[in-house]
Amino acid sequence: MTRRNCTEIMADYRTIFFLIGMLLSALAGGMLVPALTEILLDQEDWPVFIIAALITGFIAGALVLTNRGKLPPLSVRQAFLLTSGAWLALTAFAALPFAFSGLGLSYTDAFFEAMSGLTTTGATIITELDEAPPGILLWRALLQWFGGIGIIVMAISVLPMLNVGGMQLFRLESSDTSEKILPRTAQIAGSITRLYFFITGSCLLAYWLAGMSFFDAAAHAMTTIATGGFSTRDTSLAAFSAPGIEVVAIVFMLASSLPFVAYLQLTNRNFNAFWQDGQIRFFLAAAAAATLTMWFYQIATNTGTGTTAALRAAFNTVSILTGTGFTTTDYSLWGPFAVSVFFILTFIGGCAGSTSCGLKIFRLQIILKSGWRYVKQVTQPNGIFVIHYNGKQVDDKVANSVIAFGLIFVLSFATLAIILALIGLDTQTALSAAAAAIANVGPGLGPIVGPSGTYAPLPDTAKWVLSFAMLLGRLEFLTVLVLFAPSFWRR
What we know:
Blueprint: H1 3-12, H2 14-40, H3 46-66, H4 76-94, H5 96-100, H6 107-118, H7 134-157, H8 159-162, H9 185-210, H10 214-225, H11 243-256, H12 260-267, H13 271-275, H14 278-300, H15 306-321, H16 336-348, H17 361-379, E1 388-389, E2 392-393, H18 396-423, H19 427-438, H20 446-449, H21 460-474, H22 478-481, H23 486-489
């Protein structure tokens, strides 16, 4: 390769380096928030965040200054690189406050915690959260909050362009200008960001009125809206023993799992478009059906009665379905049926364009429609059957990409579970940890990674594998896996 070719290749990456530098600058600025909180509360860990912010800011400044100027537009290939590269860079530097803190975490543990935060997974290796410095607790919440808005913006602007797993269904730029909610994608991202702030503030106020302290309300509001699940307490929301707080959590977990673009339709008084969205109706129906099932199951098995069982069923079902991961009870003790239901719910997730994770409701709908179409084609060989989604015909190419995504999802889960088993994890821990990480839910099953455990006892190798699994699931698999294809790197 000639020197000129090397220069051209580096020039191709200038935009990527510049944008990563800008994101790291924002991350460095975010580190000052817990630093200021520590100072105001007269805590001793504020230098941890200052040092981490200086290191992050220095690298960010170097990337921005060395790549400033007129930048070439991003190609599809560069968009793939930027998406994975940005998430890895942000995680690497977001881990610094954890590594520098007095919690005694290795960089492996710090990276795992940061990845869990930014991917809004909610799996933690930190024990004794009740005694942790407030700055660290706030930093965990901020990471999930940043990750939540990042996922929404990526879902509306990047993934449709990359045609990942059927996301092209949600292209905002249509040839029919009457279908545009706002003129440009950037404007939509700005509107959604303002909406994100508003919903977070509403959740904070609701938690505070329900009995939380302002600090706890702020931290839990950020992790609820991000459907992340990080808490300030070891026992999660069970520590507050307040039904009102659980109700607030249920409402905002559901709200955060609906498409944020649909909320813009409500602000534009387009109520019919919101309520007629097949994805929204299917998701709410699934949440209601799963809640009723678990409520009746508790009554039938004498593990709960009345409204207490109903609230436990609703809270834990919604928490797992939306991928939030808050807990109020160890549902793995409810019996094998409950464990099976929650394990299945782990994979489903919320709606596309929300902060939720998992397979996504629209993909489940299209997979079911594709399966039913195949059944009809077998019984009626001469018939012509078309898949419709929200009143529009779904192209076979889109349907095939959704089915392929589902296959990759299952194969990735199986591969990761086998790898974890080879590392030495028992079957239940390996399966549930792989599912919880790849679906970005957080708590798994069993005494180690279950609702009452943490990921701290796992070996370092398993933590790195699970960190990769969290990234893989959050970035919709193909965005990461395509980087391992040799053809991707050929010009």
